[in-house]
């Protein structure tokens, strides 16, 4: 039997929930990624070093992404929930439901 354990998720605060979520990067054209990367406090802005960096230094890019993430947490744009259970449900246009 599976064991379910609560955890403390991190999510956008109420003020940023509309601009922060994103689809997988594969769903965007490069033009859309560039446009979204200009919006402050967006997911793509947070991972921008990965998306637009010309540097091959992966460690440097990952450190910058972590710094961006930590700044969003410090600014309370991303908040950590109390220990909770999370349920996920996704509805696709063709009426398929994933739970």
Structure description:
- This protein is of the alpha+beta class.
- It has one domain.
- The chain is built from four helices and four strands; from the N terminus they run βααααβββ.
- A two-stranded antiparallel ribbon has the order 1-2.
- The model has no long low-confidence stretch (mean pLDDT 85).
Estimated helix fraction: 25-40%
Summarize the helix and strand pattern as letters. Answer: EHHHHEEE
**Relative strand content:** 5-15%
State the shape: globular
Strand order of the largest sheet: 1-2
Q: Termini, distance in Å?
A: 18 Å
Biggest sheet record: 2 strands, antiparallel
Chain-averaged pLDDT: 85
Tally of separate domains: 1
Number of helices: 4
Radius of gyration: 16 Å
| pLDDT < 50 runs, ≥5 residues | none
- The structure class reads alpha+beta
Count of distinct strands: 4
Topology at a glance:
Blueprint: E1 10-12, H1 30-36, H2 43-46, H3 48-52, H4 58-74, E2 78-80, E3 90-91, E4 97-98
Antiparallel strand pairs: 1-2, 3-4
In short:
With 99 residues, the chain is an alpha+beta fold. Helices cover 33% and strands 10% of the residues. The strands form two sheets. It has a two-stranded antiparallel ribbon with strand order 1-2.
Which tags fit this structure?
two-stranded antiparallel sheet; alpha+beta; 99 residues; two-stranded antiparallel ribbon; single chain; 4 strands; 4 helices
């Amino acid at each position: 039997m599976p064991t379910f354990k609560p955890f403390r998720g991190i999510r956008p605060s109420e003020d940023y929930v509309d601009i922060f979520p994103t689809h997988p990067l594969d769903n965007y054209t490069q033009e859309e990624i560039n446009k979204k990367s200009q919006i402050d406090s967006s997911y793509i802005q947070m991972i921008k070093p990965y998306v637009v960096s010309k540097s091959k230094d992966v460690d440097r890019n990952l450190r910058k992404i972590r710094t961006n993430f930590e700044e969003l947490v410090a600014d309370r744009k991303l908040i950590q929930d109390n220990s909770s259970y999370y349920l996920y449900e996704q509805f696709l246009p063709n009426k398929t439901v994933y739970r």
